[in-house]
Every structure is written in C-alpha cells, then in structure tokens.
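Continuing the series of single-chain predictions for the mutant panel. This is the parent chain; the variants come on the following pages.
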Amino acid sequence: AEALHPRSSKKRYLFMLKAYIDESGHSSDPRCQFVGMGGLVATSEKWEEFTIAWQAALDEFIGGAPFHMKEYVCIPPIGPYVGWDEAKRRDFFKRLVDAVIISEARLIGCVVSMIAFKKLHPSHQALFKDPYYLSFQQVTHGCRISGMTLTEELFSGEAVAMVYAYQEEFGAVESGSANPRQQGRAESLWHAMKAQRSPLSKFMGTYASSLADDVAALQAADLFAYEITKEFENRLSRPGDDMRWGLRQLLGKLSNQQALIKFYGFDSLLESLMDNEHIPEDPEIRLASSLVQVDVMMTMKGRYKK
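Parent structure:
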C-alpha cells in the first residue's frame, strides 16, 4: 500500500472491499426469457475464507476443476458430473453455497425480461444497446451502495475494487489503462459512472476483469446470477414451485442487509427511458414500475418463506 500510495498521496486505497460480478443468460439466445447479472461484495478477509472453503469443495468433488453453473445444470450431465446421483449433486452444491455464506457477502442482482425488452420500439432497444449493459450499470450501482453501507459499518474512506467476469463481446475486458481508446464498452461505462458527480462515485475503487476459471469468487457470482435469473423464469413458467433451495439459503443466511435485486419489466424499461429523457414523463408508468418492484420483493419474500 505504501509503495502504491506514499504518504504524500491524496488517495490511499487498501481495497479491503471487493466485488465480483458475473452474468447469466444471453440476449441472442431465442430460448432465453430472462438475462441477468449477480454481484457479491465482501471484505478481503472474508473472501480469503471463502476461497479456502470453495476450493476444498472443488478438490473433493471435481478434482479441483473450476465450477461453471452451465455445466452443473446441463441435461444430460456433462464433464465431471456424468454418472452422479442426485444425492452427490446436492452434497456438492450445498458445499458451494455454504462457502458463499462464509463470505458474508452483500448480494446485488439485476434481471431483465427479454419478453419486455423485445416489446420496445427498435430505436429504444438500440439506446440500451443490450440488456447486458443495463444489468452492468445496475449491479455496479448496487456495488457502490454496498460499499457505502459497509464503510459506515466497518471503517471510513474505503472504496470497492470491482472484478467482472471477462466478456469480450460486451467489452468487459482488462485494458490496464483508463485511456478510453483502449477500453472495452463495459469498462468505458464503468469509468463514466465513476466520473459522475455523485456522492456514490467515491465508493468505486478500481475496475478489473478476469476469467472465472482463475477466480473462485467469480464462479460464486456465476452461481448467484444463475439462481436469481432462474427464480424469475420459474415465477413465470412454474409459479407454484418453491423458491430454489440455493437462492433460499443465500437470501436467508446472508441476511446482513436486504438483497439489492432489481427487475426490469416493460414499465421499468420505459421508466429508464424517461430518466434519460428519451420519452416524455409519465407518472402512471413510474407508478406501475414501482409497483412491479414492490410485487417482486413481496413475492420473493413469500416464496422464500415457503
């Protein structure tokens, strides 16, 4: 820390807070009804404890290979999961969820309805470019909110070092430079948010991108992103089902604050367009959007209690 930020430096970040973010689903997949992104914010110390527990589970069950949710849920089973019975699958998944709980992470998520997105006029869809960026912006915003609340609880003057799963198509890449000409689109969006005149901007520490294979915490973010996206899919296709076990555990045991999960349906997408003055102001749309968020929160609480 002294080497990076000598005593004369005005900015002295130790980055005791770290966030890891990954996405689930892809807008180009015609079968995909929801796309989303999940983020986890915790202290460096807790991430170290998490990594030990997570890697121990990987070593015991799949020979130390990295975990990918897409492989784990694949039917028929592929890779290291071929031949597993249901009991072994559950034991392994429980170990992973328990490791995430050890991190005591704050949960941040965003889910976008592709059905709603495709209802927008093509010119409005083009303004968003892709639901990925909407999720990226919302989860990044949630990370800095968590940074603010954690700073108030634990210490002062801290910012969140944010690590995103490498995504070449959408520009979540590592340029190693703040030079806009060298940045990917997602990284440029991150720096634009940091440059905003907002009290929350100071809680954005550093931007980085890495492969999930190399970072255990990104594998955990992948798990959480899948769980929240699948929850919204189940609400639509199988509303009578209980909340998925993994998500119920995470929401129940990581109860240090209410999870910051944003859902974008049609009204919420229109509200975002109003916020940026792309369409006229409409109080009825804002009310409908807020009611959707309340409904999502209450429904998730109800499904959690089941």
